[in-house]
Amino acid sequence: MTSLWSRLEPLLARVRKPARYIGCEDGAIVPQHGHGKVAWLLAYPDVYEVGLPNQGLQILYEILNERPDAVAERTYAPWVDLEALMRERGIPLFSVDSHRAAEDFDILAFNLSSELVFTNLLNMVDLAGVPVRSELRAPSDPLVMIGGHAAFNPEPMADFIDVAVLGEGEEVIGEITEVVREWKASGRTEGSRLAVLRALAQIPGVYVPSLYEVEYDGDHIREIKPLYAGVPERVMKRTVSDLGDWDYPRNPLAPLTEVVHDRLAVEVFRGCTRGCRFCQAGMITRPVRERPAEQVRSMIVDGLQRTGYNEVSLTSLSTADFSGIESVISSIVPDPTACGAPTVSLPSLRVDAFTVGLAAKVAGGRRSGLTFAPEAGTWRLRTVINKLITEEDLYGAVESAFASGWSRAKLYFLTGLPTETDIDTQGIIDLAAGCVAVGKRHTGRANVTVSIGGFVPKSHTPFQWFGQNGVPELRRKIGLVRDAATKTKGVNVKWHDPSASLAEGLASRGDRRIGAVIERVWRDGGVFQEWSEYFKLDRWLDAMAAEGLSPDFYITRHRDEKEILPWHHLSAGLHQDFLWQDWRASLNEFGLEDCRWTPCYDCGVCTGDGLEHIVASPIPPAGGSQGTGQDLSRGGITPVTLRSKSSVGAS
Amino acid sequence: MKIRVSYSKLGKIRFTGHRDVAHMWERSLRKAGIAVAMSVGFTPRPKTAFGLALPTGAESLIELIDITLDPASGVTADQLDSIADRLTTSLPVGMSVTGIRECAGTEVSLQEGVVATTWIMLVAEPDGGPDIASAVERVNSSTEVLLTRERKGEKHLDNIRPGILELRSADAELMSSLPADWIGESVGHAIVAVLTTSGRGIRPTELVEVLVPESDPPINPWDHLNRVLRINQWIERDGERVDVLTGRPAHTSVSA
User: Fold this and answer.
1) What is the pLDDT of residues A61-108, one digit of tens each?
2) The domain spanning residue A164 has which CATH number?
3) Which of helix, strand or coil describes residue A629?
4) Are residues B117 and B70 in the same domain?
5) Among A26, A185, A291, B126, which one is least packed by beta carbons within 10 Å?
6) pLDDT of residue B43
7) Last residue of a domain, one of B107, B129, B162
């Protein structure tokens, strides 16, 4: 094993942002490779600035390097300029820690946070000098693994990966290490690749696509079955039962160059049971597990000291729901006017006045803009998606924001949601205009930016059966909002290109046949598909046509209850019955309460896996109606019951 | 108290940019627990002032930063060595404090005061053309050395000869005084150049462009410049170049 540094070094002054490739971050380890150690190369298939802050990768990096039988390094997708030079000179994919060649590692483990990075994975495997199709790999080639949210439907990647890991990695990476260590010790002999894959498939949460056969009946799947006895019929995701046992990263990586989210991140809880039906993250990360407030405090203090950052982001899917939020904030922001005191950022704000109060407390003198996500323009549609925010909640939040000195608010919406009509789409602008009117009472500069994204249905959610809106329909709806906005003072509209939503939809709910499409797009040069300058819809449509596959079948078609979905054999713990009932409830405009503080409705996650919520407070935190239609501005009472939709009132 | 600190930037970290270095210093000062005076306003910034930007990819034995310490911290002159040690511990691998002294409020700022810097450059011998030693001689014997440079999107033909204050091949003694790990596996003809930083200064890459033969399409100077190291920064005092940190005149020592 030798370092590629001397070959890379002469190239770096010739490429953009060469600091992407040098490693050397605060918190980076000096890798100790050695005989018998399993070498992991943790890969993020996007550019360094996007991948470095990824917390999942940082956590696994540290846990693996603490093990005596493992060593882990990191790699990120080289930008196109360096990739061209590397290919020209035959330099393979390398780690940023010790600049070792990727093929010197036993495992290439990719963190997939979205589906549009699939082609980058192929590109990196190819750049590593490893065959992109798993069936062509030799015992000497590394095992290619994926994990992360976009690994919950790994079927489009089935031809390219050896292993997909479902769920949280803290525990399972140790179990995988042990199996691979045995394989190394046995000499990785000819034919042993199948044996190690079969052994890995015995680990809960580990899915080996090549050990399953998919039978088709025309376009539809007839059956998905294991090829060997002992291979599980259904693979369940992994979940750590108590986040307090895993206070990682203890040595957060602080990069030498600017990255997105350039601040300390401390995860305050994992999982979310607000039950938004479009949200894959909320569905697949249940149950809610809060980190003890005291541990949050010590991770903040240690992390700031180790990194020298003066800003910390308290991360989760809805940080205002954290039971200890007020006490944590009070203890780290003793005096917001003090020079040098750390600033706190709260991503994923809940929509209510209480939450804005928290934001005001941590913002110090800064009032750059506040972001809320009502997601849909009318109460009716918000009951469909179970984002149960009343207009009063939103206006209360906005009132509080403008009264506290903010003059800009940003509102996130999805379009292309189930049952959406033009009344709902128009409602987006009505809500934004209402917010501007509230703001004008406080400042003449009040303005609201509406940001619209096209909805892409994801696996393991109640909307997995829904036919996604096509590109023309999404364009038409975005056009309606834009037209309405031109007649509304103080409202600006931003939108995402719907054509990328189509490719994302294809990759999100595709089956194994989509693999050939992904390979064609990659071979045609389609890398960095999350970057608009590199995305071309025609590449995807041409590849679909060349493979004789129908975009309608995969993307815009509604599925029915009987259909075997491509991820039928993979489970995020949610009962299929629960998802289907929630989908029917959605179409009937019935909301569902948050089970943290109400009796269990048995979605399947806790009961199936012997888990439970770990929430410090038995009652909901103060603030707004919290989707109950009740006034919870002073905190909830137990039990909270959901009032019927009629008593909440339509908007 | 205001202090002037010199530091090195060597090895892999040379591929970070000037803004990156500014962020590293902010974080390192906090890690070292050094209280820096803050500007007032909604977003208070630490009162630091950097010297001339080092091009991304270049190394240095002498980069400079002026830091105004928080008056409330009561730092005295005899604590400066300990501050230097704490900073070196907190700075990333490849950056170390090499000098520190109190800086009078009346001293000219680094951006204005520094008039020239000395570079050691390892330049690859070009294929086919005259060798670097001859190119150095040619520059030294000319009064005009023309280079096309861009200003505001337009191309201008500049005579850069007046800005090349000194140019010669580096001798063995100088090379042996450099950090042992500096040269590594790089090869090339070692030259010493003192280049002006006043007005539109001359970059090491621009000097390379006039030392290697022209070609079409134009060369990428980094194809020829294997390594480049800044070893001195000069201010002018009584018509003489003196070291910005120590005040030693140019003729007493080449490397700081």
Assistant:
1) 999 999 999 999 999 999 999 999 999 999 999 999 999 999 999 999
2) 3.40.50.280
3) coil
4) no
5) A185
6) 74
7) B107
Does B83 share its domain with B155? Answer: no
Which of B65, B90, B107 terminates a domain? The answer is B107
Please list every residue in chain B whose beta carbon sits closer than 8 Å to the beta carbon of residue A368: none
Residue with tokens 């090829």: A227
CATH number at residue B24: 3.30.70.580
Contact predicate A415/A454, CB 8 Å? yes
CA separation for the pair A480, A474 (Å, rounded): 10
Check whether residue B209 and residue B192 sit in a common domain.
yes
CB within 8 Å: A258 and B29: no
CB-CB under 8 Å, A306 with B16: no
Residues of B in contact with A339 (CB under 8 A): 38, 44
Nearest to B222 among A13, A26, A254 (CB): A13
**Beta-carbon separation of A258 and B20 below 8 A:** yes
Same domain, B98 and B140: no
Containing structural domain, residue A58: 5-233
Total Cβ atoms within 10 A of residue A347: 14
Residue A82 C-alpha, separation from nearest chain B C-alpha, in angstroms: 14
Cβ neighbours for A213, distance < 8 A, ≥ 6 positions apart = A224, A225, A226, A227
End-to-end CA distance of chain B: 24
Q: Rounded to an integer, what distance in angstroms lies between the CA atom of residue A59 and that of residue A495? A: 33
Q: Note whether A21 contacts B: Cβ–Cβ < 8 A.
A: yes
Across A466-615, the runs of DSSP E, i.e. the strands, are 491-495, 570-571
Say how far apart CA A214 and CA A515 lie, in whole Å: 14
State which amino acid sits at residue A415.
Answer: T
Give the structural domain span for B217: 112-252
Rounded CA-CA distance A269/A295 in Å is 11
Q: What is the ipTM of this complex?
A: 0.93
**Closest CA in chain A for residue B224:** A10
**By CA distance, what is B38's nearest residue in A?**
A339
B94, closest residue in chain A (CA to CA): A24
Mean pLDDT of B11-36: 96
**Total number of domains constituting chain A:** 1
Q: What are phi and psi of B49, to 5 degrees?
A: -135, 125
Write the pLDDT tens digit of every residue in A310-320.
999 999 999 98
CB contact under 8 A, B15 and A14: no
Q: How far is A12 from chain B (nearest CA, A)?
A: 7
Number of domains in chain B: 2
- Asked if B29's CB is within 8 angstroms of A308's CB, the reply is yes
Contacts of B23 in chain A (CB under 8 A): 258, 262
Supply the pLDDT for residue A394. Answer: 92
Closest by alpha carbon to A293, among A324, A334, A251? A324
Contact A300, A316 (CB under 8 A): no
Q: What pLDDT is recorded for position A645?
A: 38
Q: Which of B12, B28, B57 has its CB closest to that of A13?
A: B57
